[in-house]
């Protein structure tokens, strides 16, 4: 497919994130199943994602088999086009499913309806089950695990998986889909069995608003107007932030590949179609290696940054002075030591040694570097690197640039979610305290409208702030490609550079 058509195919992710996640967030907030509000959506989204992945992996065989029953030639152009159309349909289904199980975060992943389902549930699952002072820690660990998965995914591109695991399929993509399905199913199952959600029936009856399409949009716009100030600011920043991140995540391999093929096409302007394809295959491997460096840098940053950034909240004082490893479940206050730092290490044997260890970790922190300031610096770093793409001429230089951008990406997948999650957790704890009769004046103020305090709705709106600009970026990218893209095999195509 051409770059312009590919841009419209990948619009499935942001489109599903804009429409599906807010709807799933509202439905999960109103869910009153005894075993939790989020688990049903996580499980349903994971099942739909696995089905979509497995079907997508064997699309060619499925389409050929069905059309073959009607006498169609498996090698005909009609069968090939039908397979492409069916694959595009599955990409959309996959995007919607992922956005159901996740709460808006992982839009860096390309496919998404089933993905949307999984993501909406998982992110809200974190918010609901971690206290305020551990939200930064929980989101940091989510970024680390995602980063580790990215590294393993890119490394798999350098391994002949069908040779190692022929029982999973005869193609690299098929084996990857099977592995991804097994990983998703097992991790969702472990999370569902090991973590017990609060019984949502204790929160009282759900909202009795209408559930039609118009009612859904009314509720979304109503919730947007009443977002808490800090969350509103994060969403505003994310809207403009993702206009820049989306083209990078989707086209950076093409950009590096173009730098690789330019000198080849300049020296050999009359290459055959087969030679052009072989050159682009080599260029794709170069681009994939750059993304591997990007993933490694991002993972390293996700591990190290929590050690030097001053946390927004700390745990409240323990009611048991002699138990230094007490883990409270109530909101904390602005503090000094990040829980994500101590979570790397087991409890020390005595309060005295624990105190010394705490002081040692605190010494690693940069006193002025809060999470908000680190996020601002990440924006500036990313903008500078994107500007430098005008001056990059070799794949090696582009690879170094992509590696540096990994630091900015680590903060982009951690900071906004940690800030929003902590705010939701704090307000939700106050609202629950009021509901059981242990509230305060602040609780009375925050609990006037329960809908604004629900994690699913707020995280869904945050994902709209992430996904909507991706639609804008996709349309702009497609237009630029249409105007500036040169024919395949011609040197000097700088259309991707202009998009970045």
Query: What fraction, in percent, of the residue positions are helical?
Result: 55-70%
Q: pLDDT average, as an integer?
A: 79
Indicate the low-confidence ranges by residue numbers: 103-116, 323-340, 439-451
Strand content: under 5%
Pattern of helices and strands: HHHHHHHHHHHHHHHHHHHH
What does this structure look like?
- Helix content is 69%, strand content 0%.
- With 500 residues, it is mostly helical.
Features:
500 residues, mainly alpha
Topology diagram in text:
Blueprint (H helix, E strand, L loop, with lengths): L2 H7 L2 H18 L9 H19 L1 H10 L8 H25 L12 H16 L5 H22 L4 H4 L7 H23 L18 H13 L3 H39 L5 H36 L30 H4 L8 H13 L7 H18 L6 H18 L2 H21 L5 H6 L8 H30 L10 H5 L1
Helix pairs in contact: 1-19, 2-5, 2-6, 2-19, 3-5, 3-6, 3-9, 4-5, 5-6, 6-17, 6-19, 7-12, 7-17, 11-12, 11-16, 11-17, 11-19, 12-16, 15-16
Summarize the structure.
This protein has 500 residues and is mostly helical. It is built from 20 helices and no strands. The chain is 69% helix and 0% strand.
